[in-house]
Design goal:
The protein is mainly beta. The protein has 1 helix and 12 strands, in the order αββββββββββββ.
Length: about 280
């Protein structure tokens, strides 16, 4: 998979290097601002994207007077707050002796402040139509490859109580802090999610305003919709970690609870850019 990705990136680089040297297009730089979030449709999770932004640069090669093909590089920051709807979650784990048990996590006021830094590589088709001598309408549609850098979260809760139920022995352990079962008050911890490459569909539309020479500024709206998950939760785990050596426990994060939980990137907002070239 890594070799295939490297070949794709290298081939794309060669193609667009030739396009740039052909001098039949335009460079662009832009900033974007809006709501960037990691969307999940699971009923047990509430996520609220925060205002954030990105910077990007790229090149559009003109196929003819109307259509072009473009790519570039973007740096995006996703920020959001996540809370849990339910108070109790159960995960099946294995303790240090190899015995399977149900790990019950009772949480009050649990929330996560999440920040994901990522690079994104767009590939799009552009339609651009002159409205008059100075103004044009443009529309872009395509996809993006999201390359995550670091997905950090700060978890807090009023209190968290963990207990273990061993069905083979019909035994429930409710208060044994030396083995990771008990109550933690004013819970606070920091951790990171394991991530993977993600893919998005992308559209952008707006207006271009000519300046002197071959320069112009443009203003538009955009939306990027995730087609795959950015968190690698291929194995289900517990939201709260189990520490057999004793409290305190930490947090694996809400996306670790179930491999069916989505973590698809979603961005929408406004873009302001500067373009120079043909």
């Amino acid at each position: 998979m890594k070799n295939i990705l490297k070949n794709i990136v290298f081939a794309t680089f060669l193609i667009f290097s030739n396009m740039i040297f052909a001098q039949n297009g335009s460079f662009f730089v832009s900033v974007q601002a809006g709501t960037n979030k990691i969307e999940d449709t699971t009923p047990s999770i509430n996520d609220s994207g925060a205002f954030s932004g990105s910077i990007k640069a790229g090149y559009v090669y003109n196929l003819n007077s109307v259509f072009g093909i473009g790519t570039g590089i973007e740096f995006m920051q996703y920020k959001q707050n996540v809370t849990l709807v339910n108070d109790v979650y159960t995960s099946v784990l294995v303790d240090e002796t190899g015995s399977a048990f149900e790990f019950n996590q009772s949480m009050s006021g649990y929330s996560e402040s999440q920040t994901l830094n990522a690079f994104q590589v767009p590939l799009f088709i552009q339609y651009k139509k002159e409205l008059n001598e100075t103004n044009s309408f443009y529309f872009r549609i395509g996809g993006k490859l999201l390359i995550p850098s670091k997905f950090k979260f700060n978890a807090t809760a009023n209190n968290i109580t963990t207990s273990g139920f061993y069905p083979d022995f019909n035994l429930e352990i409710t208060n044994l802090p030396s083995h990771g079962f008990g109550t933690q008050r004013d819970f606070q911890t920091t951790n990171t999610y394991k991530t993977k490459l993600a893919y998005m569909a992308s559209t952008e539309l707006g207006f271009d305003f000519k300046l002197k020479g071959m320069n112009s500024i443009y203003f538009g709206m955009f939306i990027d919709y995730g087609l795959s998950n950015v968190v690698d939760n291929s194995e289900s785990n517990s939201i709260v970690t189990y520490n057999p050596s004793g409290l305190p426990n930490s947090s694996n994060g809400v996306y670790s609870y179930n491999k069916e939980i989505d973590s698809k990137p979603l961005n929408f907002g406004l873009t302001l850019g500067y373009s120079f070239g043909k």
